[in-house]
Write a structure and sequence with these properties.
The chain is an all-alpha fold. It is about 65% helix and about 0% strand. The protein is built from 18 helices and no strands. The protein is elongated and about 80 Å long.
Length: about 400
């Protein structure tokens, strides 16, 4: 792709100002994207962006759907508010591209990914309009069979923000057409969740985003029997593929899964536990390096569901005990270690439920006791007389 600015210098903007009115649809989109990412900004850049926005509105039908999406994201990244650009784009899509409009077939060639990125682009610009929302939902309903796992996760991440906008009262204030059921759109949200689960997970990033989606999914919609059944298979399959996840994925997936763990049915619970144990096992096997925040928050999440396996938690426990940040959390960590010591005899005797070959040495209860008491002494020696004001973060 040819770019407008090869060098990232605002001084180059001056020579392009007179030419903006002649830019083609493709070139004006590229100019907006380049200007939005200039590291140095001055008044000329702001003028240039304003001119590009005006030109984009003038050639709006020629941008096609992909050009409109790119322009909306570039406009957001530019940080400049001008010409009611987002409102004009929304008006074009609603009125000019609707039935009987001048560009009635404008959206006919849109793919599922196009519609989802359009949905995301308006959310990124914090533009919430019930009629535009309904348009996107209608287009998505016709594209369900073509949605990939990555497409589904784009919907999950954006849809939560639309729901939050409604809950915060900023979704087209004063419009009587805005109702909770209309925003939640239970049938479509459920169908997209089922569509994702039927595809078996996708890339590691998709799995992580889906695990985070399950929290609002359970809160706003609940899980029906079909989703329970698919979740059980989903966890079972992924419990055999833990090596695909990096340590950041593992922590976020564990924290999210713990959040919905107690709302799962029996089969899903067993397979979710197998999945979590396989992730913890993989992290220990690779000797992954944990940040203090990740280790602490994950241990807190696991503690809330009563999940303790010393062999699988050693790395995280040593991280929180030996880190200087433990000073402000020391009473919470101390109680965590005490709880683990008290439950160690029962837990260490339980069979692992994960479906991967177990490659870590099993730690006898007496040895686990000694190691945990050593950690507890290290923590106490370092943090004597330090007041604790912070509790486990909510998962």
């Amino acid at each position: 792709m040819s770019r407008i600015f090869v060098k990232q210098l605002p001084i180059l903007v001056r020579q392009h100002l007179p030419r903006v009115s002649t830019y083609s649809a493709t070139k004006v989109v590229e100019a907006l994207e380049d200007a939005a990412h200039l590291r140095k900004r001055d008044q000329l850049v702001d003028i240039f962006v304003n001119l590009c926005v005006s030109r984009a509105l003038a050639v709006l039908p020629d941008l096609r759907i992909t050009g409109i999406i790119r322009s909306l994201f570039a406009y957001k990244n530019s940080g400049i508010q001008c010409h009611n650009f987002v409102e004009e784009v929304a008006s074009f899509l609603l009125h000019e591209c609707g039935t009987g409009g001048h560009y009635e077939s404008f959206l006919d060639s849109s793919t599922a990914n196009d519609v989802l990125l359009l949905y995301k682009a308006f959310e990124a610009n914090e533009y919430y309009n019930i009629h535009l929302y309904t348009l996107c939902m209608g287009l998505l309903a016709t594209q369900l069979s073509h949605m990939t796992a990555s497409d589904c996760t784009i919907f999950f991440k954006s849809h939560v923000k639309y729901i939050k906008a409604y809950d915060d009262g900023i979704f087209t204030k004063g419009d009587s057409a805005v109702t909770r059921d209309r925003i939640l759109n239970l049938p479509l949200a459920t169908e997209i969740t089922v569509r994702y689960l039927e595809q078996g997970g996708g890339a590691p990033e998709d799995v992580m985003l889906f695990a985070e989606w399950l929290i609002p999914m359970q809160k706003y919609y609940g899980f029906n029997q079909e989703i329970f059944s698919l979740l059980s298979k989903f966890y079972l399959i992924l419990s055999q593929r833990p090596a695909m996840f990096n340590i950041d994925h593992i922590h976020r997936i564990l924290q999210s899964t713990c959040n919905v763990f107690n709302q799962l049915d029996t089969d899903s619970t067993n397979h979710a536990k197998a999945f979590m144990e396989s992730l913890l096992h993989e992290s220990e096997r690779r000797s992954d390096v944990h940040t203090f925040d990740n280790a602490f928050n994950t241990l807190c999440a696991l503690q809330k569901i009563g999940h303790w396996r010393f062999e699988l938690l050693k790395g995280m426990l040593y991280t929180v005990v030996n880190n200087s940040d433990s000073r402000q959390y020391h009473r919470t960590i101390q109680q965590m270690l005490v709880n683990l010591i008290e439950s160690i005899d029962n837990v260490q005797g339980q069979r692992f439920v994960m479906n991967v070959p177990f490659a870590l040495d099993l730690c006898p209860g007496t040895m686990a006791h000694l190691k945990l008491k050593h950690m507890l002494k290290l923590l106490q020696d370092r943090n004597d007389y330090i007041p604790d004001k912070v509790e486990c973060n909510e998962a």
